[in-house]
Specification:
This protein is of the alpha+beta class. It has 3 domains: about 110 residues, no CATH class; about 100 residues, no CATH class; about 160 residues, no CATH class. It is built from 9 helices and 13 strands. Strands 1-4-3-2-6-5-13 form a 7-stranded mixed β-sheet, with no helix packed on it. A 6-stranded mixed β-sheet has the order 7-10-9-8-12-11, with no helix packed on it. The longest helix is centred in the last third of the chain and has 38 residues. The chain is elongated, with a radius of gyration of 49 Å. The N and C termini lie far apart (about 130 Å).
């Protein structure tokens, strides 16, 4: 009995040892003891991953890699990788991203599963356009539109509450905040997208597109409901870094060629010149204002003298108007220069030839000087009242020239008494005009000199 008992115990121990050995061997080879479905995905390169590596979803271990088998088929060669989800109640959503990751620079490799991310779009609330939950998402791939996802949630928000960069594109008071999911395997979208609400064959849809409208390609056909991201080897990463560094070096060389010492010196000199011109312009404006301020009395004196001799001209015009039709002496559209030409011819009938020529010359210079002074004042001051006063003086002088030239056309109709009155008045005007000419010459030269200097 004792012998049988000892043999029985040895047999039991042997069976237990064999079971543990088998379980250990299977575990080392990556065989998971789970009735869950085995999932197969294809990679072009697994970057050294081995059977038994972990499978993680959102940072949690949910399974392990069971088998890795290379399939050799020329340029179409690939690696077949099978894994199993050992945690209960875990389902991999369609279009989840499956990638090979590494914990640290030289740490353990694992398979990472990332469910499709929820993206958000903001659209203006316009008319009767309405976005509903579960409405399809549409995008143009190659030359055709495809339904690639669905609206997960939608609500109306105040536009002022959305991100600032979105507010610039939405002009309505309220906006749709639309959360959506793209579930087409293999389709990877840019981070930022734009969209619009449409009706396609009577169905409400949201059509999305990249911000730059760059056309996307339909993902290549693969017999997998997941999006596979190929791993990057360290050598590939370093090669990309080398290429980036080479491009940066080339860019720096081109920038250095463009910004040679001579170019930099010229740019610096340009900045100095601009600063000097700015300072000079400021100084010039200050000097102009000061010149106007110191010339105010002279300008007032000029305007009073101009008013004085235009009043004398008005008296002559009135004498002539008394013997003719009033309409003949109203201001016409003649220019002052044309009026002065007519006036010169008529002055010879009343004054001595020498006096007539002198008066005509004085009047011509007065009109020219006053117009020049008006231009200078208009350019050099911001005082609108002063500009208006000088402009009014110019108008009065021009009008006086036109009136007197028209009035003296009827000089042959004047009797001797009227001619004497006109002659005496013209003599007074001649003296005033001569003084006004000298004064305006001096004032105009002052403004002209300033304009030539600055």
């Amino acid at each position: 009995m004792k012998l049988k008992s000892s043999s029985f115990k040895v047999g039991i121990l042997t069976l237990v040892a064999l079971t543990i050995l088998i379980f250990t061997i299977l575990w080392v080879k990556g065989r998971a003891f789970s009735s869950a479905e085995r999932i197969e995905v294809h990679f072009k390169d697994v970057n050294g991953m081995r059977a038994g590596s972990g499978v993680q979803m959102m940072g949690l271990r949910v399974g392990q890699v069971e088998e890795i088998t290379p399939v050799i088929d020329g340029e179409k060669s690939y690696v077949k990788l099978k894994f199993v989800i050992t945690e209960p109640h875990i389902t991999i959503p369609k279009a989840s991203i499956i990638s090979i990751q590494q914990s640290g620079l030289i740490g353990e490799q694992f398979l990472e599963i990332t469910p499709p991310k929820t993206k958000t779009l903001y659209l203006p609330v316009i008319g009767n356009q309405i976005a509903y939950k579960n409405d399809p998402i549409q995008i143009k791939l190659d030359d055709k539109f495809y339904d690639v996802g669905y609206i997960k949630d939608t609500r109306i928000v105040v536009t002022k509450a959305i991100p600032l960069e979105m507010q610039e594109r939405i002009k309505t008071t309220h906006s749709y905040k639309i959360d959506y999911v793209v579930n087409l395997p293999g389709l990877i979208l840019p981070e930022f997208m734009k969209g619009e609400l449409i009706k396609d064959k009577g169905v409400n849809k949201m059509r999305i597109a990249p911000l730059d409208n760059v056309a996307l390609s339909y993902p290549p056909a693969k017999n997998s409901p997941y999006t596979i991201i190929e791993p990057m080897r360290l050598s590939d990463f370093m090669d990309l870094q080398y290429k980036a560094a080479a491009s940066l070096t080339e860019t720096n060389m081109k920038v250095n060629d463009l910004l040679s010492e001579k170019v930099i010196a010229d740019l610096k000199q340009s900045v100095v010149n601009i600063n000097e011109l700015t300072a000079q312009a400021t100084t010039t404006m200050e000097k102009a204002e000061k010149l106007i301020e110191t010339s105010n009395n002279d300008l007032d004196k000029m305007m009073k003298m101009a008013d004085s001799f235009t009043n004398d001209f008005h008296r002559i015009t009135k004498i002539a108007a008394d013997i003719g039709e009033d309409s003949k002496f109203k201001p016409t559209l003649f220019e002052a220069t044309e009026a002065l030409t007519k006036l010169t011819n008529n002055l010879n009938k009343i004054l001595d030839n020498t006096d007539a020529k002198q008066l005509a010359s004085d009047l011509n210079s007065i009109v020219s000087n006053i117009n020049e002074i008006s231009t200078s004042v208009n350019m050099m001051t911001k005082d609108q009242k002063l500009k208006d006063k000088v402009l009014l003086t110019v108008e009065h002088v021009n009008k006086a020239m036109i009136d007197i030239s028209n009035a003296l056309e009827v000089v042959n109709s004047l009797d001797e008494c009227q001619k004497k009155d006109v002659s005496k008045t013209l003599t007074d005007v001649a003296a005033t005009a001569h003084n006004l000419r000298k004064f305006t010459d001096k004032l105009n030269k002052r403004f002209l000199l300033f304009r030539l200097m600055f």
